Amino acid sequence: MSIYTKTGDKGTTALFTGQRVKKNHPRVETYGTLDELNATLSLCARVVQRRENQQLLEAVQHQLFYFSAELASEGEPTATAHKTLGDQHIQQLEQAVDRCMSALPPVHGFILPGNSEAGSRLHLARTLARRAERRLVELAEQVPVRQTLLQYLNRLSDCLYALARDEDHQHWLQQITKTVAARYLAASNSQCSPAPQSTSAELAFADVHQLLKLTVASAIELAVPVVVAVADRHGNMIMTYRMPDTLLVSSELAPKKAWTAVAMKTPTHQLSAAVQPGADLFQLEASLGGKIVTFGGGYPLWRNGQLIGGLGISGGSVEQDMTIAQMAIEALHLRNE
Description:
Layout: E1 12-14, E2 20-22, H1 26-47, H2 51-71, H3 87-102, H4 117-140, H5 147-190, H6 205-222, E3 227-232, E4 237-242, H7 250-264, H8 284-287, E5 298-303, E6 306-314, H9 318-331
Antiparallel strand pairs: 1-2, 3-4, 3-6, 5-6
């Protein structure tokens, strides 16, 4: 069967109900834009990560066929267009919006469209949904259009925005996982050496005692009261000491610095650049519920190529905290990075 009929060679096309109209008729413009949107949703469905997002997009593609059939019918619709959009379809979109947005960090301004392929394609689909909505409003000024159709398109663009953010977030989480795993692997490989004595892989009481003495002495020398926190190689707190008159917030920050240094096997000041917008670890702090600290004062402690713990100092400026920690680490010959 030939796909060309030559009936449209003069710039007209037939509606489902038989009438012939110009190809730039508002009806044709509107359901033609829905056709663009449907094709774009097909591209989106091929790359989204979440199975429920893919299923929703495929359902919407079918719903857009019903939508277009209704718009392409003047008067009573034919049997071809027996399915119509209803409130249940709008509710399905609203439920998807609520699902996605409840799991995402809040946004207080405009965002650039898409940080992943799926997110970028969904944002493109969102703009097509908005254009289709504008076309539908124009059509509604000339012919009767069901209010449900206007509501559906308005909600669909909101839904595509939520799906785009959800897919960007999933992509970001995958990148974080890969980056953190790579850091751990790189740190482990770089510290490879003949197996040390079992006692060298742990912080002894004498080590902790000396760290406390040295950090307090350095803090007194700088006239900066601090909190000293020491964690073992698993991130468990061994000791926390608060000097008199230290800022109350330092009691929270010092243990977090020690834990971060162990968890990331990296001095905390080296994480600052990695968590900036667009960097590999952007939003790391938010994703871990504030456990991570990305400014100076936390150091991993190494002995004979083995991570044995972490030291966190808080109370002065970032530079003062780093100086106090480094003086103690150097005095005990514990490499800090």
